[in-house]
Amino acid sequence: MTTKLNTTDFAAMEQRYRAAFFNSLGGFKSLTLVGTINSDGQTNLSVVSSVFHIGANPPLIGMIFRPESAERHTLDNIMQTGQYTFNHVTTNFYEKAHQTSARYPREVSEFDACGLQPWYSEKMKVPYVQESNVKLGIELAERIDLKINGTVMLLGKIVEVFIPTDCIEIDGFVNIEKAGSITVSGLDSYHTTQQIERLPYAKP
Amino acid sequence: MTTKLNTTDFAAMEQRYRAAFFNSLGGFKSLTLVGTINSDGQTNLSVVSSVFHIGANPPLIGMIFRPESAERHTLDNIMQTGQYTFNHVTTNFYEKAHQTSARYPREVSEFDACGLQPWYSEKMKVPYVQESNVKLGIELAERIDLKINGTVMLLGKIVEVFIPTDCIEIDGFVNIEKAGSITVSGLDSYHTTQQIERLPYAKP
Fold first, then answer.
1. What is the reported pTM?
2. Cβ of B204 under 8 Å from any chain A Cβ?
């Protein structure tokens, strides 16, 4: 049986119900821990499911911040330093990743509160998550404030990456399933994946 | 062993290698068939992995179009009618969905060429994919041209949805894994999912 819902039904939904509903409706999402630091050296870590690919040349990656969210410490830090890291999440620490979504005070580092290890590369001043399998170092390229609903979109330039060597395939494809990355649906549902197959370039 | 790559390495990559690399680096992505129609009544269908959640109230969903891509017929049609549909993909027809990425001429409908059935609701003039388990009807809200790399971002308002009734959980979460939706990594790697668990709202 199929349920049909329209704008009248959406408007009648209770707020948390509506958030759970639409967060799961777009499909499976990337699961990322964002590492930042402020100008006083205070680190921050937040889990996001709003990362999306923008382009490969130059390598650009986007992220959405919802208004009034716990992630705003992250946004503040990025605006201070111009840098951040994206760190894939695995089955080994997804509960800790989820815990970073709690509303900790600004003076608390989620690295300490949630039991994850900061790790620094030679190039970036912002922390990576040591436990993470795939790490991306990013420099802020552009901020776009979406007037339509008060969200903020950041476009970032990928400047360095750390990947398990045996997960980079011959044609450049990074096998993130082999690397252990997992996916998220909605606000709180975590999923491993099982590759069906890679399909060849499609021709008419 | 970990491979470290930086901007110098990125610049040295062959173009297709670079595209495969960065398309897989952001994490697992939603897999969506976009249904459109032009002002002459010609339908079009294209597979995209660039859909992302923007907000629940109002329900907004984003999509990126890369420059010079086969998806431009889709963009042209949306600019003509202001409407489009998002249709989740399942294991039953992911090969057909992939085939829509071939560069068919404008006068060919991918519904015919790839063997998928158009279906129309009472409200929208654009086609849904009958085979799809989760269907979203969308009205264009805003177009943003990203000067940074020539991509186009569309922000759309969800105006109706069709979902298997038994996949809507008590708190509003839509269990898209139960509905049969799959995910994609990179440009061509298709994956089913296995739910680990849903975690409760995190508190400090």
1. 0.96
2. yes
